[in-house]
Known about the structure:
By secondary structure, this protein is of the alpha+beta class.
Amino acid sequence: MTDGVRVGDTVHDPARDRVGVVMAHEGPYVQLRPLGGGREWDADPARVRPLGAAELLSARVADVNTRSRTGLGCLPEATPGGHTMWSLAPEGAEQ
């Protein structure tokens, strides 16, 4: 476990058994948001751990699969840093 996580890191929170992106440091906590967006939660920075490359890929695939099964859909978007982000597809958009 580490308390050296930075904003933007993707981490596992064992207290909730969830994966989230570090959005901010607030008081003694880090605020995490689910990969696909949603409500943030507070986590103990000493207990969360950054995901490895394979774990991050697995978490992203699981998120995209969930969106596909629930009919939300998603479209890839390139960011200036060359990373791929997934966003909700507008109704009727091609995927």
